[in-house]
Amino acid sequence: MLKHKTITFFCVSILVMMLVLSFLSEVKWWYFLLLFLFWLVMTVWGSSDIRLGYFIKTYCNNQDEKKRRIALTFDDGPHPMTEKVLEILRKHNAKATFFCIGTQIEKYPDIFKRIIEEGHTIGNHSYSHSNSFGIFSTEKVTEEILHTNTIIEQLSGSKVLFFRPPFGVTNPRIAKAILDTKHYVIGWNNRSLDTVIKEEAKILERVKSKVKPGGIILLHDTSLKSANVLEQILLFLKSENYTIVPVDELLNLPAYEN
Q1: Could you list the residue ranges that cross the membrane (predicted)?
Q2: Active site residue 75
Q3: Which of 32-36, 77-81, 82-86 has the lowest average pLDDT?
Q4: Taking CA atoms, which of 84, 141, 210, 253 is between 20 and 30 Å from 36?
């Protein structure tokens, strides 16, 4: 699954062969450039698309799921809007997974506790959710993960095992931090883009078009727009006879340390 190592090994092997050949005959300079560009494109693509599992094993769906089961996940809370999301979930008797930011938990500890009290699963979504997360050192990423874990444990009594990197970004430094802290990386295969798309109808259609058994839907519990779309998604899933389950149940993975 560590595809980055495979691609890098392949590129280095080709590079060595080209260097050897260059002593025997002329090798065009742009061959070297093409090789480098291939490695660069693969690295950038792998860093930005969590579904590839390019640097570390990621869980983005359950391809072996035979029943119509699907998971709803929410990023970036807790937030005042989380309470409306919780009300909608309770109304439809649905359990979701919330990937929470450490600073947000500190701001809204009561809302965080309510998520747990209503039977939803909690995951770690870093402490700061910084726009610079992708260039953090391994030490800094580790600090962010462990700090948030501590906050969660103090309020819930549980040690979380699920981690979702901000923006779904991974790289060798983030991968090492995750391996060191022994977390499962949880991604998605149905991204709503509810923080980007303005029209609720377009968000809904995007999600509906990607719904499949074993899927993981990514939403955010930070806006009224997303809460409104959630209600419509739940109605759609019910009409299609889907059962909504937490990520740990869908993937058969432990969400918390025993």
Answers
A1: 7-24, 30-47
A2: yes
A3: 32-36
A4: 141
Instruction: Tell me: pLDDT of 1 over 70.
Output: no
Residues 121-168: pLDDT tens digits? 999 999 999 999 999 999 999 999 999 999 999 999 999 999 999 999
> Which pair of tokens denotes residue 180?
């060191």
Query: Amino acid identity of 167?
Result: F
Of 125, 220, 221, 248, which one is the catalytic site residue? Answer: 220
